[in-house]
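Researcher: Here's a chain I'd like modeled. Treat it as a single chain, no partners, no ligands.
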Amino acid sequence: MVNRALSVSEILTEVDENLAQGRGAAAAPIPTGFAVLDTYLSGGLRPGELALLGGPQGIGKTFFALQILRHVAKAGQGGLYLTYEHDAPTVLGRLIAAEAGEAVGLGAVQLRRIRAAMEATDGGVGGLELRLAGSPGALEALAKVREYSPRLFVHRANGGSTDLGEIETVIRECRAAMGQAPLVVVDYLQKVAVPGGSEIEAERVTVVVEGLKDLALSMQVPVLAVVAAEKEGLVGGTRLRTHHLRGSSSLAYEPDVVLVLHDKYDVVARHHLSFDIGNADRFREWAVLSIEKNRSGMDHLDVEFRKHLDQGRFEAQGRPVQETLVDGRVFVQ
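Model: Modeled as a single isolated chain. Structure tokens:
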């Protein structure tokens, strides 16, 4: 069925009727759970919009995206994680580690301990609960994951076959199972299959980013796609910008939100270290999230979150960056 054009008069009537009956006239944003980020995003990630999350290798992009999914599921919303990089048990282990870290803090069971238990290389016996029984925060974490697990789905995608069509099918299936539209995370965009597509990566990326934006609009779901960076964006400590994301210019034009993670030490101005060399270690504990683009609120802003990557998480209570940031790596004599 082809949608017909609506007059503004019809739109006004529909909006008034929805509001009079206590229904929203527009889809409400879904909070990410990172309070300062949600403030700048005017509430969170919106159905019908595409957001990108970039950053250098190892900065914690997957952890950050999974943390958003955890927050969404714990708040009663649905979440779908399409992963081209990790199997389902690995994702589960990261969820447990992050929950334990939030429950207990720095003394919580670490990701490597959970991984050993799941691989049955820990010398223990029995199921996961028995193997982790003596680990700080593990049982509380398992209980929390079980609470929201029916609302959080994981799909192991394949770079050779999981294309936009399969992604649409999975979203529909999960929406039917959850009874609500999920927040969709694609990890990561450059690995989405394009059967019969061009051998030129930029052209394939254009197809994928445009397709993900169309899916977000047509299915009225928020889509968050993790994106890789170009090689030149990783050399010499260059601060990543939107144009450093690997692919084509469509990565700048199509998305509604572009977020880029950095290690704070790599992007803070040198004079913050010159007066106190101890700042170097403190800065390494933080990741800076730059809001490069934001159609629903403010952009060109930098916020920071403390990293706990050994627990697979960031502290949700972030803050605006106070120091001066630069585009090049800081070197200290």
